């Protein structure tokens, strides 16, 4: 007999087989694909997942005849030697083992009892079992269930781990950081019976608790800082991440934690936090790639949100039912799309716009900022009314329809020639502004040009004292000369209106760190101009967001490094009204669709994307023409100039204020819900039967069947009758603290998943969790104060031999730390870790050329621009997460890319991990700073070795370990005395500075010793 958890059974021979534990896994793996729930794919009209189908007699043949294995055709077909008859068929590449065949025979002989899948039965709170004394304490119900099962298997629990091990284990598990030596000493000195419990209570109150617990949830939520597809541009989701941290720290009950994330926007008088929490369903991957089809991505986003919700709260693979009925679990395709209907009316657009904030969004403004925004909105509205009144008085005639056509008009205005405007207040970043004559250097025209020699970013600029109006079809040009012996990395022109929001740059992308990529704030025009000659740089004014009628009140000549000369900045224009989209409505409507759509505001982009002009409705034509008359038509410029200039200035002030206010993506529904359909074969453009919001029939029904909302869906998940929600969450907590869930397949509680190793314990925990008010900290405290958690992790017989994966919990949990904990622990021990909580994602060290190979031109995440200072040492939770190129140190240690939900991280053991720990600049710098702290603390070599070892492992080294470290120190000292230059190189890693007062040889030797300690298996393992 084989148990569901893959261990040899030690149960008495007369114990009956259990269908869910012993039989369902065999049938599910080998038979259900062809003889299971999916009627459309079912072969020979034979169903083996329910008793009615298996027992049915067809033409005198019975697949399963209870009590009679010889008369059961299922066994005859399994044992057949005929390739035409044998099951599973050879092409399936599946074959039952002899043990599985014998198990099936015995089950049929015992009566072939079927049971409903355990996961679809409501959990029942079993009585806590009595346990015979074993000399090991039973501290709570967890221990009673575990020890009762161990006794059945003839095993004993392990004794409690050493106190040093315990405090390290629980501190890492509750905060993601190791304990300090002072905390270890305090625990060792505390002889109270509840000393350990008081440590747990202290850790549960730590702000670091929420950071660590929140990190696990971010995997589930597929949180990231970028959209995920095509340009993979930055998005502002970090307030959601910070809310998750707050929710864990404040111990928000899991039912509220669920409701807020699935439907926070639908709660009455929703608070700021409830709205932020609804961002859970805005964490999905989105796109704005050209050629993408709106309907397809609306469909894909709704599928993602449905699949994620079912996986996260129910532990089921509902996505299998997108194209057909689920092959293994009782979820039909229609039922999937009935769930999908809850998410199919989301208000976010199919195309994310490649922008930071794709609506709907929530601005986290102060009361003062809200008042100022409201005032600006009112003022903008008044100017908009004046504009509409002026446009209403127009008697527009399309010039393309006039014969003969209106004449061509040309103009040119010099903005810089020999000097800046007379009244301009010229400033410089770098050396003073220098105008040179022809005798002093190259001058393109006139008597003088502007020259600057720079190191880093430098510029000459003004923002007041001059004013220029942007004409229709304005084209900007400037002459640029670059010294071939001293080339810059990049050159830039900047223009000031209501702010410095208009920039054109040539050369190395990202060298000049001004403005947001793929916005008018920073437009890449091309490579660096050819050096040693005058090059005319020319571009349309609109390309940098300078629209006709706008007032330019300043400009800047900017460069990074090098020697550059600028001359003759000019604005020219040429207008041929009959062929110009800024004069002819007809020409504008026929213009290249991509360019036309790109110039529209987001709401109008969504309106016309993918449509030809002839397909626009009458209402759409009116909205678009009104916008065109105000913003594009140059014939209206004179009559709208005053209010439009006021409006543009006010909008500039509003944008400047909004840029200062944090914001995040939130969930909202359309005022009019979309119809939902079963999509034939999962194709977005093949709607079949219409469906309404509902839940799968295998589960208890929704309480509100009349137009249910996402809030009703959340309440359904949290109802006492729901069999999965509480089970799934307590299982994930168990997985977090014990390495493997009670249900090992935490991502699949269905037929293809493993049954629970301790079903009664799982259900007891689930019901207790719900009855206890969904108190997450109480559940965590229960788990980590149990003896089961506190056991020694020593791998000893007989438990290790008979339970190598420790599914029966005869010893304490031991496993490799997650990626974030490995990095954060090294920074913490070194003294470099920043305690700052929250805020935008940061960009610490990473190897060169990680983002660039996957980056598209124009993406604002094409180039990795490393941060500096404190940002290099923030907790890994706050590292900027780019989906198409996740942080490499995290990926190396098995972190997911977060393109979809991750319910269980894998753990690998690779040479690359060792290389990362030994050579990555973050770890070498941490080792050096750790060494520096040891040297500053003083004391003998032995005391320093002891202090270092304790900081990393929380325990004292034994004599052999201390001698090994001392020997390594002497070897490094000798090597660096022979090569002092190598010592100086070692201590230069990272941006934090080595103490110049310390001997470089001594510091380098101790750096490698600290690096050695941080590379110990014990340092990166939680045991």
List the defining traits of the structure above.
10-stranded mixed beta sheet; 35 helices; 20 strands; two-stranded antiparallel sheet; single chain; alpha+beta; about 1000 residues; disordered N terminus
Helix and strand layout, with pairings?
Elements: H1 19-30, H2 32-35, H3 51-55, E1 57-58, E2 61-62, H4 73-79, H5 98-109, H6 141-152, H7 163-175, H8 181-189, H9 195-204, H10 207-221, H11 238-249, H12 254-263, H13 272-277, H14 294-314, H15 333-340, E3 361-363, H16 367-392, E4 409-416, E5 427-429, E6 434-437, E7 448-462, E8 468-469, E9 475-482, E10 490-496, E11 500-507, E12 523-526, E13 535-540, E14 551-552, E15 554-575, H17 585-590, H18 593-598, H19 602-608, H20 618-631, H21 637-660, E16 663-665, E17 676-679, E18 687-691, H22 710-717, H23 725-738, H24 759-771, H25 776-784, H26 787-790, H27 799-802, E19 815-816, H28 819-830, H29 888-892, H30 911-919, H31 921-937, H32 941-953, H33 959-978, H34 980-986, H35 1000-1014, E20 1021-1022
Parallel strand pairs: 11-12
Antiparallel strand pairs: 1-2, 3-16, 4-15, 5-7, 6-7, 7-15, 8-14, 9-13, 9-15, 10-11, 10-15, 17-18, 19-20
Helix pairs in contact: 1-5, 7-8, 7-9, 10-11, 12-22, 14-15, 16-21, 23-24, 23-25, 28-31, 30-31, 31-35, 33-34, 33-35, 34-35
């Amino acid at each position: 007999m084989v148990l569901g958890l893959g261990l040899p059974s030690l149960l008495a021979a007369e114990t009956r087989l259990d269908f869910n534990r012993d039989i369902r896994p065999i049938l599910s793996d080998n038979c259900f694909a062809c003889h299971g729930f999916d009627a459309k794919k079912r072969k020979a009209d034979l169903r083996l997942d329910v008793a009615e189908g298996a027992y049915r007699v067809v033409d005198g043949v019975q697949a399963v005849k209870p009590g009679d294995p010889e008369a059961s055709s299922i066994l005859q077909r399994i044992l057949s030697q005929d390739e035409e008859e044998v099951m599973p068929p050879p092409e399936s590449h599946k074959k039952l083992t002899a043990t599985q065949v014998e198990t099936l025979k015995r089950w049929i002989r015992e009566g072939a009892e079927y049971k409903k899948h355990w996961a679809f039965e409501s959990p029942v709170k079993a009585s806590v079992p009595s346990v015979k004394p074993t000399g090991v304490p039973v501290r709570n119900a967890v221990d009673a269930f575990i020890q009762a099962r161990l006794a059945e298997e003839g095993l004993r629990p392990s004794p409690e781990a050493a106190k040093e091990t315990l405090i390290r284990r629980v501190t890492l598990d509750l905060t993601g950081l190791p304990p300090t030596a002072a905390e270890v000493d305090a625990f060792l000195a505390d002889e109270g019976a509840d000393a350990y419990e008081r440590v747990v209570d202290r850790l549960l109150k730590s702000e670091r608790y929420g950071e660590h617990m929140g990190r696990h949830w971010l995997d589930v939520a597929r949180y990231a800082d970028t959209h995920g597809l095509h340009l993979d541009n930055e998005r502002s989701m970090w307030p959601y991440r910070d809310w998750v941290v707050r929710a864990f720290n404040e111990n928000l009950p899991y039912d509220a934690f669920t409701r807020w994330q699935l439907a926070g926007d639908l709660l009455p008088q929703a608070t700021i936090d409830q709205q932020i929490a609804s961002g859970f369903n805005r964490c999905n991957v989105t796109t704005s790639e050209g050629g993408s089809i709106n309907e397809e991505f609306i469909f894909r986003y709704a599928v993602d949100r449905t699949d994620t919700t079912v996986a996260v709260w129910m532990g089921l693979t509902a996505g299998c039912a997108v194209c057909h009925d689920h092959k293994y679990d009782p979820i039909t395709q229609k039922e999937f799309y009935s769930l999908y209907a809850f998410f199919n009316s989301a208000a976010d657009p199919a195309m994310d716009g490649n922008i930071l904030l794709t609506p709907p969004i929530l601005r986290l403004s102060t009361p003062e900022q809200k008042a100022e925004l409201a005032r600006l909105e009112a003022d903008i509205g008044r100017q908009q009314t004046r504009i509409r009144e002026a446009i209403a008085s127009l008697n527009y005639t399309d010039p393309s329809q006039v014969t003969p056509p209106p004449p061509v008009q040309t103009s040119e205005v010099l903005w810089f020639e020999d000097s800046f405007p007379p009244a301009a207040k010229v400033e410089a970043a770098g050396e003073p502004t220098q105008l040179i004559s022809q005798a002093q250097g190259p001058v393109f025209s006139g008597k003088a040009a502007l020259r600057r020699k720079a190191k880093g970013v430098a510029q000459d600029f003004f923002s007041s004292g001059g004013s220029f109006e942007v004409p229709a079809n304005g084209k900007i040009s400037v002459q640029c000369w670059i010294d071939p012996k001293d080339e810059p990395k990049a050159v830039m022109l900047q223009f000031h209106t209501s702010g410095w929001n208009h920039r054109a740059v040539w050369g190395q992308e990202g060298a000049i760190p001004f403005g947001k990529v793929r916005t008018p704030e920073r437009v890449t025009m091309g490579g660096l101009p050819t050096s040693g000659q005058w090059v005319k740089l020319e571009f349309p004014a609109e390309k940098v967001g300078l629209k006709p009628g706008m007032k330019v009140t300043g400009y800047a000549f900017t460069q990074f490094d090098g020697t550059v000369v600028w001359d003759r900045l000019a604005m020219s224009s040429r207008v041929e009204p009959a062929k110009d989209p800024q004069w002819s409505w007809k020409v504008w409507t026929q213009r290249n669709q991509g360019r036309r759509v790109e110039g529209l505001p987001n709401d109008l982009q969504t309106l016309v994307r993918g449509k030809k002009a002839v397909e626009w409705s009458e209402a759409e034509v009116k909205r678009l023409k009104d916008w065109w008359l105000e913003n594009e038509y140059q014939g209206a410029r004179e009559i709208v100039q005053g209010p439009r200039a006021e409006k543009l200035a006010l909008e500039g002030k509003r944008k400047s204020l909004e840029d200062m206010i944090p914001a995040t993506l939130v969930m909202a529904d359309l005022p009019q819900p979309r119809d939902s359909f079963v999509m034939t074969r999962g194709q977005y453009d093949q709607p079949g039967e219409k469906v309404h919001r509902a839940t799968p029939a295998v589960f208890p029904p929704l309480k509100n069947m009349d137009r249910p909302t996402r809030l009703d869906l959340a309440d359904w998940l949290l109802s006492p009758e729901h069999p999965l929600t509480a089970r799934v969450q307590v299982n994930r907590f168990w997985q977090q603290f014990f390495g493997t869930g009670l249900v090992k397949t935490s991502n699949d509680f269905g037929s293809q998943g493993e049954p629970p190793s301790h079903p009664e314990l799982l259900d007891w925990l689930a019901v207790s969790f719900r009855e206890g008010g969904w108190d997450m900290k109480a559940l965590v405290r229960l788990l980590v104060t149990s003896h089961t958690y506190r056991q020694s992790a020593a791998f000893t017989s007989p438990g290790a031999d008979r339970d190598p994966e420790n599914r029966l919990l005869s010893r304490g949990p031991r496993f490799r730390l997650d990626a974030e904990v490995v990095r954060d622990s090294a920074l913490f021990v070194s003294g470099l870790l920043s305690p700052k909580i929250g805020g935008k994602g940061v960009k610490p060290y990473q190897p060169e050329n990680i983002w660039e190979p996957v980056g598209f031109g124009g993406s604002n995440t094409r180039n990795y621009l490393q941060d500096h200072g404190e940002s290099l040492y923030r907790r890994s939770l706050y590292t900027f997460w780019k989906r198409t190129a996740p942080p490499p140190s995290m990926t190396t240690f098995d972190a997911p890319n977060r393109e979809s939900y991750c319910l269980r991280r894998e753990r690998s053991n690779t040479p690359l991990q060792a290389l990362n720990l030994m050579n990555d600049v973050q770890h070498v710098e941490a080792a050096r700073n750790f060494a520096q702290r040891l040297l500053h603390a003083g004391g003998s070599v032995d005391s320093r070795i002891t202090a270092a070892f304790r900081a990393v492992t929380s325990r004292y080294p034994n004599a052999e370990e201390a001698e090994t470290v001392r020997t390594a120190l002497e070897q490094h000292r000798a090597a660096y005395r022979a090569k002092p230059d190598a010592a100086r190189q070692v201590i230069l890693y990272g941006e934090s500075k080595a103490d110049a007062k310390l001997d470089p040889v001594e510091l380098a030797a101790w750096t490698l010793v600290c690096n050695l300690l941080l590379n110990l298996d014990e340092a990166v393992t939680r045991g």
